[in-house]
Amino acid sequence: MQKIFKHIHPYEPFIDDSTEKLIVGTLPPPRFTTGDLKEGDVNFCYGSRDGQLWPILNKIFDLNLKFETTSKA
Fold first, then answer.
1. Residues 31-69: pLDDT tens digits?
2. Domain housing 31
3. CB 2, CB 12: distance < 8 Å
4. Per the domain annotation, does 14 fall within a domain?
5. C-alpha dist (Å) from residue 53 to 58, 66, 68, 71
6. How far apart are the first and last CA of the chain?
7. Residue 30 falls inside a structural domain
8. How sure is the predictor about 73, in pLDDT bands with cuts at 50, 70 and 90?
9. In the chain, fewer beta carbons within 10 Å around the N or the C end?
10. Residue 44 CB partners (closer than 8 Å, separation 6+)
11. Residue 12 lies in a domain
């Protein structure tokens, strides 16, 4: 029998007074809660290396995003 995993969302809401649109999705993979990130993960909302949200938005809007866990990114 599998143990139940208590999943606590690792990030505070990222919404300010000028927000006009909100992207709503699922919880991040459990490794984001435990801090055991994989190489290539970015420690931010939807930062799983397996996810496609940021690469797609980057391409659509030509954002030149940096896919790394840094304050500059």
1. 988 889 999 999 988 899 999 999 999 999 999 998 888
2. 1-7+19-73
3. no
4. no
5. 8, 14, 15, 19
6. 41
7. yes
8. low
9. N
10. 11, 69, 73
11. no
Q: Which amino acid would we find at residue 24?
A: V
Please tell me the pTM assigned to this model. Answer: 0.69
Residue with tokens 């980057």: 58
Residue 43 lies in a domain: yes
User: What does the alpha-carbon distance between residue 38 and residue 60 come to, in Å, rounded to a whole number?
Assistant: 26
Residue type, 62: D
User: Domain count of the chain?
Assistant: 1
The tokens for 41 are 């993960």
